[in-house]
Here is the input.
Amino acid sequence: MKRVSVIDVAREAGVAPGSVSRALNGEKHVSAELRSRVNQAAQRLGYRPHAYAQGLRLGRSNTIGMLVSDMRHPMYAGVVAAVERELTQHGRMLLLADAQGEVTRERSILDTFQRGTLDGAIISASYDPIAASPAHYEGNRLPLVLIDREVEGIDRVCLERRNGMRTTVRHLLALGHRRIALFTPALDHVPGGERIAGYADAFRQAGLASHKRYIPRLTSPLQDGAEPLLKLLDLPDPPTALVCLGTRLLSGALRALRQRGLRVPEDFSVIATGAPEMLELAHPPLSCLRMDLVGAGRAAAQLLLRRLDAPNSPIERVELETELIVRDSCGPVPAQT
Here is the structure.
């Protein structure tokens, strides 16, 4: 079947081909009557403009890059899907790059994005402090949006951290727990620091002292959580509860509890973070600090599209709230502790 061309639309609308191009490209001086006539003719004929050629004419590629720190992390599936869905609705394509957990590879991908024909990029960088430094993005010419990373001078979508962690720890304190472990990567990063602050807030507001020995230094959310929890369980005063960020950290921690014969929630309480749908499938269903990862992806795409439409507008920081969902993995502190 022959592809419908601009000439066909012009003939159908009774106007010159140049008028069709100007109307379909959204040029401002085209009258509303002409634009309507051309759009109706294009719709009747089923005309679809060639996206790449149209992008060249308008000085854009209609392609957005997305850099993720490590696709092995399960959270990225929902984030990437949300970004792509939002971009597709606005006629944009997504080019996905995986840094495989390496900061040097992140920098290389960013450089490649700069040299290419992308209109902009969405970045979910690693937890390495280098990736949180403005110097990591120096010389950047592309419009960027960061997901859950704090870098001044760059648009970003962040998940609320301090209040959510305060609420989570407060829930465990109300159950009688006082020795609460916290597994969060990037202690030197803004996200990790804010979660620790929320943890400390809950203890302070309850008139209790918090203890840093229950917050081990972790290298990555992809680290196995078994070893750090086993070390804590060997303490003379081991924790009775855990708040855990990261799927692999969580799976390792649960394995460590099984190795020690500790039952959830009878002997040990656990609260995870992330997507509640997945955590509900655990046995028992895990209490969860819900993070709207799909919403973060959608918001990041919307923010980048706004930046492309208004490149000189003020830098935006969008924050999404978290929510504690209580299920069956938390119980009162065991009597013998």
User: Anything to note?
Assistant: Residues 26 and 307 are 18 Å apart (CA to CA).
